[in-house]
């Protein structure tokens, strides 16, 4: 049973009131909003210049592949050097890249390459950011997980929307200036923060011992498998949502945007409510198994009715992500020393990128056939297959106990 003594919303807001964690979270949000603007601006600008969908696809693919490499490098550096200085340096480089795009945005090759680099730099600083804020607020990891969940969800919703709005009203230059301004805010907010800890004295390696590899919490295999599968299913269903809604003559012009917005709204509610519950570690396997099957069932339901059913489905889908996201984050971080957190988050984020990449590959293999059928087959298949795949590492872990 879950604890019947709820946490209060004020406790969930505690990281924002902390003298170190609060500015860090604000800095991350500003940087993520800037990244959200660029994530829309660069592909749209590339298409405006080339009128070539393949060029846009290459920008997305390049950003993802380079992002995997940069996340790995960022995690390695975050566990060896001062995380605050890595973040400041990253923000400054991103400002320079955005300024360079501002000057030469009419040269499509330059625009595409710098856009890919700028997007990948957002993956580079993620391990240092995630590890840094948790290393100074370990006494309430659940509250930190909620604040990061809510902050990332809002930035992923507001940033791209702001980027599209600015591109349509003030053009490439205006959108780039907004992104640069947000990066300036991120730097100014984080500079006064004291240097971030890399690990307590008792966690340091003995003399003569090499740097340790990241320690593995016992359920990490199931957590990583759940991340891969959910990223894969989200990638497929969100991509299919565009043609699915276009084929419905009764759907309004902005239906896809409404669906994405209501999904994000559901994710914020789900994450916040999950943060109010006092979870036990023993709940994690059940949450992973139930969520895996529920995702597929909810995704399929949204494809079987009129256009508005996808709004209800994606809202429920967003809510369901709350318990899994909050509980897995708290569980894994609590069992990983500060000196290994950067590499942990690099691996974790790259697992999600690989899941999304697998979704894109499946779309390419499927070809020009009805994409709604693909989404239905994969969603209904996930109802059975996803829990089984997650159960495998859970059973292996139990055998080794």
From TrEMBL:
Q: Which GO terms describe its cellular component?
A: plasma membrane
- For this UniProt record, give its keywords in alphabetical order, as a comma-separated list: Cell membrane, Membrane, Transmembrane, Transmembrane helix
Its localization reads: Cell membrane
Q: Where is the signal peptide?
A: none
Q: How does it sit in the membrane?
A: Multi-pass membrane protein
Q: Could you tell me one molecular function GO term of this UniProt entry? A: transmembrane transporter activity
Q: Say where the protein is mainly found.
A: membrane
Question: What's the superkingdom here?
Answer: Bacteria
InterPro entries in the record: MFS, MFS_trans_sf
**Transmembrane residues, as ranges?**
21-49, 55-78, 110-129, 176-197, 218-243, 255-275, 287-308, 373-395
Give one Pfam hit by family name: MFS_1
Q: Which PANTHER family match?
A: INTEGRAL MEMBRANE EFFLUX PROTEIN-RELATED, INTEGRAL MEMBRANE PROTEIN
Tell me the protein's name. Answer: Permease
Query: From which source organism is this entry?
Result: Paeniglutamicibacter gangotriensis Lz1y
